[in-house]
Amino acid sequence: DGIYIHAIFLKLEDMGHEASVEWINPKGLRQSAYSHRFKDANYHAWFNLKLNPAFGGRFLKAIDPSAGMDGFIGRWSVRFYLDGKLIADKSFYTAC
């Protein structure tokens, strides 16, 4: 019920850093954003997007796994930043 990103940073300067992601939904709107602050030169970060169905979909999910998921179906983008600079912009497609 979610999408995950695992980022590995190696050999960064030993100072404060911020890794962040923006999840862009199929309508082109920012669904959510998260960030991690860290000081290590080597760091692992996990980011996730929860695919929560609409209220009625939770009850129907046992019968129809795609119930309430209409807003999540389509082409998504995720933008990944390190210290405010865009370092990756990837797309993926979700279908139920």
Q: Radius of gyration in whole Å, from Cα?
A: 16 Å
Distance, first to last CA:
11 Å
Number of helices: 1
Helicity range: under 10%
How confident overall, as mean pLDDT? 85
Strand runs, count: 6
Label the structural class: mainly beta
What is the 3D shape?
elongated
Placed side by side, the strands forming the largest sheet appear as 3-2-5-6
* Helix/strand order, N-terminal first: EEEEHEE
> What is the oligomeric state here?
single chain
**Strand coverage percent:** over 45%
Can you describe what's shown?
With 96 residues, this protein is mainly beta. It is built from one helix and six strands; from the N terminus they run E-E-E-E-H-E-E. The strands form two sheets. It has a four-stranded antiparallel beta sheet with strand order 3-2-5-6, with no helix packed on it. Strands 1-4 form a two-stranded antiparallel ribbon. A hairpin with a 2-residue loop joins strand 5 and strand 6 (85-94). The termini are close together. The mean pLDDT is 85.
Structure at a glance:
With 96 residues, the protein is mainly beta. It has one helix at 55-60, and strands spanning 2-9, 17-24, 30-38, 43-50, 74-82, 85-94. Strands 3-2-5-6 form a four-stranded antiparallel sheet, with no helix packed on it. It has a two-stranded antiparallel ribbon with strand order 1-4.
Topology, element by element:
Blueprint: E1 2-9, E2 17-24, E3 30-38, E4 43-50, H1 55-60, E5 74-82, E6 85-94
Antiparallel strand pairs: 1-4, 2-3, 2-5, 5-6
